[in-house]
Amino acid sequence: MTTTACYLDPYFTVNAQTLKQDITSRLHDAIRSKELFEKEASFLQILGVPLRDNSIDLGELLESVTGNYLDSICKRLTAHFAEGTPAKISIDRDLYKLISLRGSDEHRELQSQVRNRLNTFESDIKVSDSYLEAIEFKTIAESINTQRENLKNTGLSILAASICTHLHFEHLDGHNKPYLKHGKLVVNTWAFNHYRAYEVVKDLTGVALALKAVEKESDMVFGSAMDDYIAAAQQLSYQGHEKIPSRTVFGKGSHLEIHIFKEKHEFRLSMEAFEAILAFLSLNGKEAVVTQIMEKTKLLEAA
Amino acid sequence: MYPVYLPSALESIKSRGSMAAKPGSLGALHQQRVITLAQYWTPDWLSRYIWALVSPAFSEEGRYSVLDNSIGSARLFKYADPKKVNIFGFDVDNELIGNVVKELDQSEHAYKFDIVTASMDNVELDRFSAAFINPPFSIPLSSPFMRPYTGITHYGRLGPNTSALSHEYALAQALAHCDIVAAIVPHTTKDVFLKDPVMQSRLRAVFSLPTYAFKDENVSSVNTELLVFGLPLKGVKAAVPESIRVKTGTIDENSVPPTLFQFFCKSVLELGGNVRHPIQVNGLEVSNPVIVTPVSSDKRVILKRSGRRIKLHFFDGATEARVLNALMVSRVQSTRFHKYPKSTRYSGQFRLSLDALSMQDDPATALTSVCDIIRKAGGQVEVSQQLEAGLKAILLENRKMSVPFGRSVYRRGSKTFTAKSKRMGLINKSQFGAVIAKNEQVCVSRLDDGFSIQTSRGEFCCQQEAFFNLFEPDSDAGQQGFWEEIYPPIAHTFPTEIEKLKTKALSLGLNNVLTWDFQLEDLLELAFRPKGGIAAWQMALGKSRLAIALSLLLNGTSLIVLKSRLVLEMVDELKKLGITDFQVIKTIDDISRLKKVNIISYERLRRPLHNRFPKLTLAKLLRKKVRNVLCDEGGLLANFQSQQTRSLWQFGAKRNYVLDGTVMPNYPREMLPIVSLTAGQERAYQPFSMFDGFMEKRLFISAIEQPTGREEFNRRYVTIDWSTNELNETGVGAKREIPKIKPAYLGDYRQWLAPLVKRRLQQEPAVSRYVSFPVPEINEPIEVEWELAHLQLYIRTLEEFATWFRAYAKTQSDDGKALNLTLILARIEACFKVANTPSQVSGFATGFSHLTTKEIACISLVKTRIDLGQRPIVFARNPLVLHRLSAELTRQNITNLVFTGEETIAKRINKLDTRIRQGNDQVLLASLGVTQDGLNIPQVNAAIFYNRSFKPREEQQGLYRMIRPQQTAKRITCDFLHLGGSIDSYMAQLNLWKSKVSDAALDYGEQPEDDEDFIDFNAFIYRFIESLPALKTQLESLRKLAA
């Protein structure tokens, strides 16, 4: 049995032909293993060993092997090209789940082939070949390559969106709108206790990632406020609905300070930090949001 | 027992009430009240009781302010401890107030007080900690300036809330401005006040006084109460039963004051600190009428010119009142929130200012609008020809003073080039989408005041400083630079005037005095200015000759002011040029026979002519006698407080010029005094002032927002910030002024200086066409290692300083006093001495007869320079160092000359001439103090600074002694020697910042980057002390090595 690793050219471009070849090879191996498994399973049953299943559904086999292989390529490329951003490369399952989608007219013939085959190795191979012919490898390769090329930017957009959401930049007329005070930009967020800590930490981790991206690009150093804040949230105990103690300050003196009060948590950004974030949002976020931010925080006048 | 603080002289003053005869009827009672002002002093026991009752509210540490709004002879403050309280008060009795102020002023207890003559219905008050009041009873008050108090002030003759009873108004006023009030009032008063629930919550005590309480004041029986109020109670405390909350009872001489419920007040600090004028008197001075013009039917209003103002001439008093009210609109008063310039008294007064008028888009229309206001107020306007001519003259003056001097600046980079962004950031803050990603390549074009950046998102403007912070020009572009003319010569705008001046200059033969084109051009531009200017020519471009030429070209007599050591050189120069109509002013007689060109030294100018008359100086006698004043090395005028500067301001000359190559020695704000002298203050072309207002266009409409000139200058150009990041993080220390101009205003600052400063640089094309100056190679400082014994001594001295400084800083902080920098500098001198001249330090075992590592390094560097064919000059502060170096150099057969202030000027110049200028001595060893402006030594070509100076100017001046036109060497070097971790590196950092900001402001260079630390003096001291552990580690290493 061979398991051939996907071949990627030195520039990490996924090639449709190569994809097909690799998957073909894997499917043939899988079918061989299926035949062997079914033979042995039958024998065991004859010997009296109770087995739940002594056969493997061919359709499932074909789709899961293909899907697993494509996922591994996507994961590898994501790891390489996301550069720490949360963007992921993924393939639309409809592109290879041609058999299990029984409602689809497009692949009835294939489905019929699967149902009506002789259940021999040769017929399985024949079905597998038909299956492979039906898959649009070119489309898959193009999709992967396109996503790869834009992955970092997509990731940065996600990060920009998380900043906008958590720091309320999308709702500049809302209750928690940011405001300028003593030369700093102040953003209020709701205080949380242990019960909400999990989802808040999830959000905050995204924001922390975003701020690290800003730091990397702008040479701004936000300090340890975010990390300390997340750590404190993670340590909240369920007893007594514990909250982070009021008057705690994370990152005092740095460009990002987080001040804890009973009913709110205040993010205080220095103007340099705010400008760095604004630059990041201008490059990676929604233009409308950035325009609104600049207008509302009167950056023009502040300048 | 409470000690008495009030001067006893005040106790002997009798009240008017006590001396008045008893009234026979109610009508007479009212009459008597008016005469006596219902003035009755508080009995002594009652003053003591009140003080004992209230003083527990004052904490031990704080300082408090106490008010009496009918202070009389200040009896209520008899027991007030001057160490704890500041006293404030007012009274209508002018003579009495005069006595009180005099006695308190002369008191041994050093009272802090502010007591004025005023009526309580005519004052605006700040906040105070407590009030002790015994107001006049039942005097009807009537004033348009009353503050309204519900239930207390009523509709009066002058309108709503213009009438009240004195004791009620006094109590209401005290309650409105003080946290605690102790008031002696008629017994019915509380019923009026306690209708208000807030007053109820404030009430803490009601004590009935005996009816005979004021018997000593000739009042046999009166029903009075002592009411005591505190801060309003809230929440649970407000719900406390009245019996607990409010103490009641009858008190007398023997009563012991109880403790009052929730009784405290804010200290002066908590109230916001000391306020300059906590009592401001409203209304007009009633003793002297403002309008004295009699009433007549002649409604004419003649508008004349009086200096820079419009003077109105009236013939009818009523018209005058109406017109002035219409023009002036309203009085403006300084408060703690806004300080007005002292000459700004009315919001509309700038309608009569020719400067404000001249700044309007159409001054003629503006003048018409003023006339319209006068007409609407019933005046018949006549505009005098004198005024029209005056306005035209001011407009012309503005134009002539506003046009920038011709100027070229050196630009880094080429006109267009490519650059790469160093990081992500905003290109500017005013254009949407003006953002750059990291490592993005852009095309750049230079603009007047920055760059235009072409990115994938569009084209955006970027200020110079921001550009170099964000982008790295491609290597070729970074190396290049070009000279750009940013302002054309004035001749382009005023060709006729300049040509006229040129004709005159040529007829005087001044083209033989100033032989280079740029010199003549600058002469004409400077002479063109009606008020004066600053000639900031770099060294060796001929400032002395410029001064002479200007003196000859300008009309009237001229006075050239120099440092005394340069007087002879100036005289020599004049003689060389064949000019005879000059003199050096030394005595009073010289003033009576002034020549065309008169020379005087700064020192002589300010020196008193006689010990008996310290204020009688030559400066004073020269007032209004010279038309033009030219100050050589006038950068020293940046210190307005110095006697030299004050002397120069006394002249009242028509034109003032300052000639100095390093005109901005330290901070951008230092330009303000110099510019104020040469261009005037509060003008359209120079809107700032040092002690008055800021001139701007909108003042013509209203002066309500007018800041002071200095305030506006500081707001724009003075940067107050955390001087180092560590102070920011630790919170220790405070914000300091740092030598940097706010980036947003850097362009503004340059524009402000453009018509005021004529700058010339040695390397600019107009100069280099005639003379070539080598560009000095400024090398990185050479770090010299310590020697064990020397480091030991240094550490010991530094530890002593650190111990002293910490104790001193704590004492000063405890006393609420600032650090005395002069004292600190004097103490730090010891460290400086140890670092550089340890041989001078007594009481140390080895005596340091051998050379220190720094001296050895210096000798070595000298030899290196000599080997390279150069002729070094070594600068040091202390002549002892120079002598030691000289001895060693001589021992090594290297000829050298020591040039210090130990010898007379004549003697040392003679030696310099024979041994360096005409001689062959290989090395010149010169002390920094004597190697300054005016001394030309092109024979040397390698500067070595043994010491750093606290003043970048000193180092610059020293360096430029050898950068003269006569310099033949192709290569000029400059080296600095720093002892590792010593005071040298801190001084270097200080100087670097100051040099950079001067470069940025005057020569369009770059300011220090935002992330660079400026070590202000305080931070410098702390870092200096904190360097001890590192030095000790170094010492340990040296010990190990030695072992």
Quick take:
Chain A has 303 residues and is an alpha+beta fold. Chain A is 56% helix and 8% strand. The model of chain B is unreliable at 726-732 (pLDDT under 50).
Notes on the structure:
The complex is a heterodimer of chains A (303) and B (1043). By secondary structure, chain A is α+β, with helices and mostly antiparallel strands. Chain A has eleven helices and five strands. In chain A, strands 1-2-5-4-3 form a five-stranded antiparallel sheet. In chain A, helix 1 packs across helix 2, helix 6 crosses helix 7 and helix 7 packs antiparallel against helix 8. Chain A is elongated, with a radius of gyration of 27 Å. Chain A starts with 15 loop residues before the first helix and ends with a helix. The N terminus of chain A is likely disordered. About 1% of the residues of chain B have low confidence. Chain B is 36% helix and 20% strand. The two termini of chain B are 71 Å apart. In chain B, helix 17 crosses helix 18 and helix 30 packs antiparallel against helix 38. With 1043 residues, chain B is an alpha/beta fold. Chain B is built from 38 helices and 43 strands. Chain B is globular, with a radius of gyration of 36 Å. At the A-B interface, helix 7, helix 9, helix 10 and helix 11 of A face strand 19, strand 20 and helix 27 of B.
Write the layout of secondary structure elements.
The complex is a heterodimer of chains A (303) and B (1043).
Chain A: H1 16-46, H2 58-81, H3 108-116, H4 121-134, H5 137-149, H6 151-166, E1 179-181, E2 184-190, H7 194-218, H8 225-234, E3 249-250, E4 256-260, E5 264-270, H9 271-284, H10 287-296, H11 299-302
Helix pairs in contact in A: 1-2, 1-4, 1-5, 6-7, 7-8
Chain B: H1 8-11, H2 16-19, H3 26-36, H4 44-54, E1 64-68, E2 85-91, H5 94-106, E3 113-117, E4 123-125, E5 128-133, E6 140-142, E7 154-156, E8 159-165, H6 166-177, E9 178-186, H7 189-193, H8 197-202, E10 203-208, E11 224-229, H9 235-238, H10 242-245, E12 247-250, E13 279-281, E14 300-306, E15 309-314, H11 317-328, H12 354-358, H13 363-376, E16 380-383, H14 385-402, E17 407-412, E18 416-421, E19 425-426, E20 435-436, E21 441-447, E22 450-455, E23 458-463, H15 464-470, E24 471-473, H16 475-479, E25 481-487, H17 495-507, H18 517-528, E26 532-537, H19 543-553, E27 558-562, H20 567-576, E28 582-584, H21 588-592, E29 597-601, H22 602-606, E30 608-610, E31 613-617, H23 618-621, E32 628-632, H24 643-649, E33 655-659, H25 671-679, H26 709-717, E34 719-722, H27 725-730, E35 735-738, H28 743-753, E36 757-760, H29 765-768, E37 777-778, E38 782-784, H30 788-814, H31 821-836, H32 853-867, E39 872-876, H33 879-891, E40 896-899, H34 905-917, E41 923-927, E42 942-945, H35 952-959, E43 973-979, H36 983-1003, H37 1017-1026, ...
Parallel strand pairs in B: 1-2, 1-5, 2-3, 5-9, 10-12, 14-16, 26-33, 26-36, 27-29, 27-32, 28-29, 32-33, 37-43, 38-43, 39-41, 39-42, 40-41, 42-43
Antiparallel strand pairs in B: 4-13, 6-8, 7-8, 9-11, 10-11, 14-15, 17-25, 18-21, 18-24, 19-20, 21-22, 22-23, 30-31, 34-35
